[in-house]
Amino acid sequence: MKHCDHEFWYEALHMVFILFYCFTIYFTMLFYNRINYSVYVFVCTSHTANKMALVDKTTQSITTAKDMREATQTIMKPYANWEEYLAPAPLSIAILGELVYISSQTDFSINKNPPKDGYNHIRYPESFRACLMQVCNSGWWAFKEAHKSMDKIRLHTLTVPDYVANAVKILFQGNDEMLRDDLPDQLENIKRVAKECVECASCAEQKFEDVIKLTQELLQACTNSKRGYDQELKEITAALEDAKIKQQQLQDAKNMYEKALKRVETELDDAKVKYEKSMDSLPSGWGILAMDAVGGITENVTSLVNGVISLIARPIELACNASRKVKDARHYRADEDEADEFDKIEICSKSSDILAGINVIGAFIQQSSINWKELYDQEEEKAKTYFAEGQFKRVQNELKNLPNCKQKQHAEGICEAGISICEKLQKHAPKGECSPEETSKILGEWEKLNKLALAFDSESKNTTNSPSMTQTPPMMNNINNAEGSGKKSAGQRATEIAYFRIEQTRAQMEKARQSQEKCVEKMENNEKELAEVLSCMRKCNIEEIDFNTTIKILIKGMDAMGRVQAQWQKMIHFFEMVSHIVNLKSTSLLDFQTTTSKAQQQSYNTKLLKKDLIYKQAFQASNIANLVNMISETYTCMSDKHLMDRVSLLGTLMAMDSSKPEFRTEIDKLRLGCDEAQKSILQEVRKNKEAFDKSTAARLDRIERELLPILPAAAPEEIRVIKEAVQEGFTEDQMSALM
């Protein structure tokens, strides 16, 4: 019996040991698998974080200050051509030469029916020949002044980069005392350069305006004294009416520019307020994602400034089209386009704010699901997308006072759709779930909203001519590097945006290339037109030159001088823009006292924002100065080669005795010289186009070569949506259809 008991307990103990051994193996394997899974998740997360950190680093390397200046030049090149300043010059000089030639013929008085108050510009109304010589002399002085002023502008703009470098150094290295005491001096230096350049450009512009007014008065005097020439009088009347329209266009453009410049100042003032409000509404613990969310504020300023620069650089007629529509608004229905060009730029500049809100929503949507756990803010007891909802409502409020147009409708539609999605997420966030049908509906609305936002951002880049890939402000960049890009959530969203920016850049480069091609084509057509005009003038024998021929030449001369004057007005507005950008009187940016708000709890605070805004101001001023320096340097070089010798020859002709045989020889020499100048300028334009095509291709190639290989793979469907959104944004009709 005892023996049996012994065997029983032995067997039982053996079974317990076996069970213990099995359980040990089971739990060991389970623990091991969990460790492996944790290691796997950790490795995958670290790999993604490292990938995104590398993407951020590469993006920074291709968006340096130098890169952004070159990108801005590339995008702006079709609008800010130095050729526009030179193209009318040979025609103008040639016409002045023809007037000298004509003035050697039969003379007559134009003082038969003088104005009651006398002439304002004509000095010798008793002699038509003397009046023609006065026009020639005035034109000669205008071109001399233009060359001198452009050379001064070239020298002045060379100093701006040094002032900007000093300002940036103080921003990076200086304490608060240095910022308050030394920084204003550097910005004032930039402003002083702008003021001196405005004076130079104004002086040249005034000279050409004097020629135009003198010619107008001469033509008017001709209509009063030559009553027998009905056809010629009709031509004069039409030319004078056209001149009045162009002068009104110039005035409309000036008014629009002044409005734009004041709005830039206001936007800089508002940036600090917007930032603090955004910071106060941020969900707790967002850290570096907060800077991504409010980074759109500084981009607003950049887009607005770029838009104004492009507006200044556009042809006067295009810039004024919308202004004329507004004046005739009584003929328009309320839902039609009532906005001028700057209103559209201001509306489109808000795309960065809108996209920031979209990115917040995108942080909680992964492909076909919603991350309810991360979405709900336990501390605030609501969905974290309340920040995005606040962004959309703020943009909506800012749009209320702007005139109606397609761009406004696009922006408002996106904001309304964004608010709707945020409200639905807020409704279901406390429970952390919703029905499959409701989830599918929200995801469908999100896909449409995301595509609309990407398309509107592309439309914004197209309207404001802002580079797709922008430079991160230095203070924000320092915080990014210090906290580590790997901490960013929504890596999938960051990947999508990176692909989007590459596709936008591709579309921008193609648009710039096509625009430049059209500019060259237009100039070639103008050259043909010029050749026909000069050929027609020169076919007339000296005996055949009559009042009719003279009037036609005067009208052509007035038109050519008007084109030159318009270019110099652009130059004035460029430097007025620089002055307004760095204007410190209307901003509080130099007050570096911190405020007591939730914003101060963030690593990126109001003080750093102000530094970044000042950097943006200085950088944009430097961008414009660099653009104008490119124009002025090329103009001065080309003027030395092809214009000033002809201008000097014109002066020689005015001093010669027209009865001498040498006079005709010099006339022929001037004609040949003007023809050669026009051909040489056209050759330079073609050569410049080839270089431009290479630069656009090189920019895109560098971005694709350095950024594409390191981006995580994106789904084909995402790439398709991105490409469609970009194309829709760069094609207005498609964008309207999408809404």
Automatic annotation (TrEMBL):
Q: Which UniProt keywords apply?
A: Coiled coil, Membrane, Transmembrane, Transmembrane helix
Report if keyword Transmembrane helix is assigned. yes
What are the TM regions of this chain, as residue ranges?
12-32
Composition skew (Polar residues), residue ranges: 461-483
Instruction: Please list where the region (Disordered) is annotated.
Output: 458-490
Q: Coiled coil located at which positions?
A: 226-281, 502-529
Superkingdom of origin: Eukaryota
Question: Which PANTHER family would you find in this protein's record?
Answer: EARLY ENDOSOME ANTIGEN 1-LIKE (PTHR33488:SF2), ZGC:162509 (PTHR33488)
The molecule here is called Uncharacterized protein
